[in-house]
Amino acid sequence: MLTVIFVMLAEVLIFVPSIARFRADFMLTRLKQAQIAALTQLAAEDMVSPELEAELLANAEVYNVVLRRDEVRQLVLSSPVPGEIHDTFDLRMAGPWELIRDAFACLLDPQDRVVRVIGYPVQEAGTLIEVTMETKPLREAMLDYGLRILILSALISVVTALLLFLAVQRLLVTPIRRVVHHMQTYAEAPEDARRVIEPNADVEELRAAEEALQSMQMQLTNALRQKERLAQLGGAVAKISHDLRNILTTAQLFADRLEGSADPVVTRAAPKLINSISRAVSLCESTLAFGKAEEPPPQLRRLNLAQLVGEVVEGEALGADSSITCLIEVPPGLIIRADGEQLYRVLSNLIRNARQAIEATSQPGTIEVSAGEDEGEWWVRVGDTGPGMPPKAREHLFAAFQGGARKGGTGLGLAIAAELVRGHGGRLELVRSDAEGTEFAIHLPKETTDPAP
User: Fold this and answer.
1) How far is CA 334 from the centre of its chain?
2) What does the pLDDT read at residue 293?
3) Could you identify which of 85, 303, 397, 417 might form a hypothetical disulfide with 346, taking C-beta atoms 3.0 to 4.6 angstroms apart as the criterion?
4) pTM (2 decimals)?
């Protein structure tokens, strides 16, 4: 239907000047016929009877003929005019817009008028020829011409529309239906790589759409496979953590007995051993909770941040004998409100990552831990002088099993750390990571009402 409408519109644009041209040609034909009749009269003026003159005018379909030759205006042929002359049309100086205007005026006027038409004689037989004629034959000829143009335009429109319909069906509709079919089939089993579409469209835009759909389907299929593997891995880790927790519980019982030893060295070491085993048990329990896609809500209490940072640094073996220098710039009296075990895990993950990044360079380095507060939050920064994180690790920084920055790393530590900080209502962010090192910042709000899940 659109094709028919557009073709008809194009035909209308063609029809407007063509009907004007047809009217002008019709009048010029009458002038030529009138000129022939006038020349006949001039050639044998004494031999043309009134009956022959009337026949010449009837054949030319005019009432009278005026010919100007040698600056003399002469009425060559004449007959009674049925009415007054309604209008005069001079074809010698008429422009396109004037011809179009006069043509449509003739079409829209149903009355039979008598008009005067002026033009140039053919073969330079004079300087001017003028005839008087009726508009009825002209209007009927124009209507017949317009009807033929309309029928031809309609036929062209239907044929064009049919051909275009078949072409669109072949080039567009059929490939689009194929794409829709592939999308529906793929949606039934997105993990099946055999259902991924193979681009084969001939139209460039459709082929680009098929290639984009193929890329999206492959990414989704790979993501679903990875999710399935992660789910299986999570189940295995949960089982291992469950058995490891039982083993550590037994070790914890023996460590409790060491506290009663009389040996001074054992007495000093026993609390640290008990704390380490307790944290290991807590980590196993947290791993089990993480495997269920949930983390227990933080138990907020007031704690000394400098003391907690010192325990983390000591637990990571960053003492005086280490090639890595640890600078702690935490005010001794800074008291924050947080879950001590969860914050210990967050700082431990960040400091451990910093230590491993520096050790990978086989060069001495520095880890700096600083902290402070303002009116709305407490903040802790952990920076190192390592080589920085690769771009791929920064893209999936806090995604489990995707943000590993070193060979053999799982990327789980930062994911857990970010989740624990969110549980406090805060956020963990990467401040910078370049050739001079990496720095993370922990922001903990002072007004924590409902910890984030």
Assistant:
1) 51
2) 46
3) 417
4) 0.43
> The tokens of 23 are what?
């009217």
- Residues 6 or more apart in contact with residue 266 via CB below 8 angstroms: 258
CB 358 within 8 A of CB 385: yes
Which residues in the chain land under pLDDT 50? 293, 403, 407-410, 449-453
